[in-house]
Amino acid sequence: MHTQEPWLKTLERMSCGGLVIDTQGGVVAINDTAERILGREVTPDAQACRDGWQRDALKRLLARAGTRLRIDHEAWITVQHDDGAPLILHAIPLASPATPTPAADAHTMLVMVDLRERPRPAATALQRLFDLTPAEARLALAIGGGLTLQEVSDETGLSNATLRSQLSSTFHKTGTRRQPELVALLARIAILP
After folding, report:
1. pTM for the structure as a whole
2. Alpha helices in 40-113 (DSSP H)
3. What is the b/e burial string over 59-69, where b = at least 16 CB atoms within 10 angstroms of the residue's CB?
4. 128-151 burial, b for 16+ CB within 10 Å, e for fewer?
């Protein structure tokens, strides 16, 4: 297990990709979200048939941004999407140039934030933290995912009156008063397991 593994897991809970690369640009460790983000850059066949596909996918992302990664420098990189908010890459050197590391060692952490994604806490965390019922937790997550009450009603078959009652109870239990406050709260606690 790499010493960066706890950081990768934490980033995963925040719906952020994380990967650790060596001085040659090879992927040493990666979380599921980063793998999903990189997987959008290559075909499933390319992923299945060869090692190093993650490195190739990262190169494609950087080429789309019109930049290269300077391994010994912190960097902020924006990759535009055709269909919405951009992907943000933040490169963080784990070793300084004064203390070089062997090529196979972890050298740089790359944090990937896809602004199209919304962090979502676990329903069980919401129930434990705020004593929400399962129905209230599902509604809170639906609201946090961008659905309106009408869309939730259409999906679940519940009446608007029932949903408004559940939402009112959710507001009371979470100490929020409006949907944007609830969404912000959900994003803040998404890091919890």
Report:
1. 0.72
2. 44-49, 53-65
3. eebbeebeeeb
4. eebebeeebbbbbbbbbeeeebee
Would you tell me how many other CB atoms lie within 10 Å of the CB of residue 104? 11
Exposed/middle/buried for residue 152 (C-beta within 10 Å: 0-12, 13-18, 19+): buried
Residue 108 dihedral angles phi and psi, to the nearest 5°: -140, 135
- Would you state the torsion angle of the CA atoms of residues 34, 39, 42, 47, taken in this order, to the nearest 10 degrees? 110
CB 88 within 8 A of CB 113: yes
pLDDT per residue as tens digits for the range 53-82 = 898 899 889 999 999 887 778 999 999 988
Query: What are the residues facing 88 on neighbouring strands?
Result: 78, 113
Please check whether residue 152 is in contact with residue 158, taking contact to mean a CB–CB distance below 8 angstroms: yes
* Torsion angle of C-alpha atoms 48, 83, 58, 92, degrees rounded to 10: -130
The whole-angstrom separation of Cα 184 and Cα 177 is: 12
Phi-psi region of 66 (alpha: psi -120 to 50; beta: other; left: phi over 0): left
